[in-house]
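Action item from last week, closing it out:
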Amino acid sequence: MVMMAYRIIQELAVRWQHLDMTVEEGIGELSTLCANEVSFNGKEKCNQIPEPRTSVKKLLEAANIQLPDVLPSRG
């Protein structure tokens, strides 16, 4: 498991090197993106992913990650 985490850090460092931030700073920036819980008729729920701010969008694009618009709610 530790080796996998190390490989992820290495990959993000390569992909984010042009953004002038460390992997730790990038992950901290990504952690600011939160889902909004949306309910329909007070029962059905889903999590809507808002449009990320520019700094987060740049990190996602550099890592070649596309977020879904919505995610199912686990209650």
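Closing note: The radius of gyration is 15 Å.
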